[in-house]
Amino acid sequence: MSNELPTVALTRLLQGARYEVMPTPTIADKVREFVPLSTPVTVTAAPGRGLAATLDLATSLADAGYAVVPHLAARMVSGREELADVVARLREHGVTALFVPAGDADPPVGAYHGALDLLRDLDEMGHPFTQVGITGYPESHPTIDDDITVQSMWDKRRYATHIVSNMTFDAENLATWAERVRRRGVGLPLLVGVPGPVERTKLLGMATTIGVGQSLRFLRKQRSVFARIASPGYSTDTFVSRVATLATNEAIGVEGLHVFTFNQVEGVEAWRQRMLEAAVAARSRTR
Fold first, then answer.
1. Residue 114: burial class (beta carbons within 10 Å; 0-12, 13-18, 19+)
2. DSSP conformational letter for 93
3. Backbone dihedral region of 50: left (phi > 0), alpha (psi from -120 to 50 degrees) or beta?
4. Residues 161/187, Cβ–Cβ less than 8 Å
5. Percentage of residues in the chain having pLDDT higher than 90
6. Contact at 8 Å (CB) between 42 and 20?
7. Residues 168, 139: contact at Cβ < 8 Å?
8. Would you place residue 49 in the very low, low, confident or very high pLDDT band (cuts 50, 70, 90)?
9. What is d(CA 55, CA 86) in angstroms, rounded to the nearest whole number?
10. Is 81 exposed, middle or buried (CB count within 10 Å of its CB: 0-12, 13-18, 19+)?
């Protein structure tokens, strides 16, 4: 066990949290208005919008002074030539971090069928990014067995600097999964995927802004998310506090929070500031 107290860990996690946003027409303005420059912003990639939308938003926010982490979904990249162009563009705008999932494009648009293929090419290009995230699945992947996803992290570990978990809701399940990953020998730091405290009606409304076909895919994919967020027993405050307790255990290796905002950045930032104030007050009372 670390000597770090849960309230200290909670403060650290909240201060270093990063926000995930989707590339919709109004999100850049919302980020600039409500998200501090000190908060890293990750930008998703979706087959229905193409990589251009991800790269345009990522470079725009990078130019505005944000630490930006574009999602470079392997199955959306046609091959090494396009990858080299993407790398050059991101580096030109000062982007130093990347998240590399396999992605949902089916079939793949080109040579990359999984994240490992693209990660190997990045490696051969001389490690152009200082931070590279790969995906972890404490909430099981809908089509891939848990044994395979854990083995995949082992295969990708030397090309990455950290793991970003998919959205998760159960701290006990998260701990069990993380211990299994560590037993396999994957020691990369873990960023825990946390759903922000978003309103379901706004979530549905946001889905309609990303195009009819993409909206349907979004809603199907997030159906279980809606159910979990709306569950009477679920609280983002409680879950994040439990993650902070896990973060005091060095063996689990929780390094940060990856907050899924569903583009409701104003509400999520207000929640984070409220949680931070409460954590700081709690630490003051224990001194």
1. middle
2. T
3. left
4. no
5. 70
6. yes
7. yes
8. confident
9. 8
10. exposed
Cα dihedral 40/41/45/46 (nearest 10): 140
Closest CA to 206 of 161, 260, 169: 260
Q: Which residues contact 264 (CB under 8 A, 6 or more apart)?
A: 196, 198, 199, 202, 203, 206
Can you tell me the mean pLDDT for 253-271?
95
Task: Report how far residue 258's alpha carbon sits from residue 247's, in angstroms, rounded to the nearest whole number.
Answer: 14
Residue 163 vs residues 100, 102, 186, 272: alpha-carbon distances, Å:
10, 14, 10, 22
Helical H segments across 93-164, by residue range: 115-124, 146-156
Decide: 259 and 13 in contact? Cβ < 8 Å: no
Residue 54: predicted pLDDT = 97
Question: Which residues have C-beta within 8 Å of that of residue 126, sequence separation ≥ 6?
Answer: none
Q: What is the pLDDT of residues 67-116, one digit of tens each?
A: 999 999 999 999 999 999 999 999 999 999 999 999 988 899 998 999 99
Cis peptide bond upstream of 107, omega within 30: yes
Judged against a pLDDT cut of 50, whether residue 215 lies above it is answered with no
Q: H or E stretch including 165?
A: strand 162-167
**Confidence (pLDDT) at 140:** 72
pLDDT band at 58 (very low <50, low <70, confident <90, very high): very high
